[in-house]
Design a protein that fits this description.
This protein is an alpha+beta fold. Helices cover 48% and strands 22% of the residues. The protein folds into 2 domains: 56 residues; 121 residues, Nuclear Transport Factor 2, Chain: A (Roll), CATH 3.10.450.50. The chain has a 6-stranded mixed β-sheet.
């Protein structure tokens, strides 16, 4: 490979290009310095702080869990405290095979469910964890939000309609599939 030596013509062209770049940087740097010294800088700083505040507010909103999410988590753990923490003051839970319950009486739902299914064998509180999957878009076009509802350890499956308001979950109404577990629950009543 043969290289050609740099001629004075090449080096002077290169030096000219570097010199031109340096002049542009100086001009640009001076312009930025003049802009930074003007009132625009204060407005820009104010706008940037607003952007930071907005980002922090969004992050806090994302970190907050909605009442519906807390409610679903509570049922997934069979955790009465979590369910009630997400429920509105006038909350109502209706299970056609067990009964209708308010915030104050929802603990009776779990007790009754355990009593009616005890002939299946020993039932622990964690066996009554209901997984609510959804929402089901095809049914959630009217009032309420529909979910698939399943307590796999005790065999109860079906759907549920949940109504949510500003104060939390207002109501839930369950409908079970016709299977052996729901038949036993129905017969035990």
């Amino acid at each position: 490979m043969r290289t050609t030596p740099l001629t004075s013509q090449h080096t002077s062209a290169t030096n000219s290009a570097y010199a031109l770049r340096g002049q542009n940087h100086q001009r640009l740097g001076g312009a930025i310095g003049r802009i930074a010294a003007t009132p625009i800088k204060k407005d820009l700083a104010t706008q940037l702080s607003r952007v930071v505040d907005l980002r922090q507010a969004r992050e806090q909103t994302v970190r907050r869990i909605s009442p519906l999410d807390r409610y679903l988590e509570g049922w997934a753990k069979a955790n009465l405290e979590e369910i009630l923490a997400a429920a509105a003051p006038d909350y109502c839970f209706r299970d056609p095979l067990i009964g209708t319950f308010s915030r104050r009486s929802l603990h009776e739902y779990f007790d009754t469910l355990m009593d009616r299914l005890e002939h299946l064998g020993p039932i622990k509180p964690c066996d009554m964890a209901f997984e609510l999957r959804g929402p089901m878009a095809e049914l959630s076009h009217g009032p309420g939000i529909w979910f698939w509802r399943e307590a796999s350890r005790i065999g109860l499956t079906g759907v549920t309609q949940i109504h949510v308001g500003e104060e939390g979950v207002l109501a839930e109404c369950v409908a079970y599939d016709s299977n052996m577990a729901s038949h036993m629950l129905r017969c035990a009543a």
